[in-house]
Amino acid sequence: MSQANVYTRRVREILDPAAGGAGDASADPLDDFSDAFMRIVLLSKSRDFPDGNSLSRTQGAILSLLSQRSPRRLTSLADLAQGDLSVVSRQVGALIENGLIARERDPKDGRACLVSLTDKGAAAWSDISRRRRAWFERLLADVEPARLTSAATVLKTLSTAWADLLKANAQAAADSGSTATSHPPAQTPPALAETPPS
Fold first, then answer.
1. For 80, 136, 144, 153, which has the most beta carbons within 10 A of its beta carbon?
2. Alpha-carbon dihedral of residues 119, 123, 126, 131, nearest 10 degrees?
3. Helices 57-68 and 85-97, packing angle to 10 deg
4. pTM, entire model
């Protein structure tokens, strides 16, 4: 069987529990978690996920971060969003053009700039948050609050550990004199890649 066919079969197994993927309990809890997590990642790429109209994932993340604390430096946004500074800068530029955020010089350092949510941006993020909450409420209506709390704790632990790993990898690359950027792209597992491996 070709690598492409193996990839396609694995994606189908993850998305369809009846096909023998995420629906079959494993003797290893970590394997079960890994399959469930990959299934969520794949499903989140669907059009049904309330992702903010025409906003990209990075743009949505920027609005989310600025809704928590504003203004922020571009470098801070890139670190928190785990993105390349040049990519985040382009996304910030698009958000500025759409009137969702504003940019100004940092009064403490004229070489740096700060970005903050505009009223339009705050309203846009409020709408995204409202639709996401309604979406999750519908999907998780039968899940007990205690189980939601436990799931949130695990996901927070995972996201923190993942972010720490990326920072450690970036620091290791910098310390070794690598030509890689300070925010190297994470290696995507084959099962999550956009296209099958060649």
1. 80
2. -160
3. 80
4. 0.62
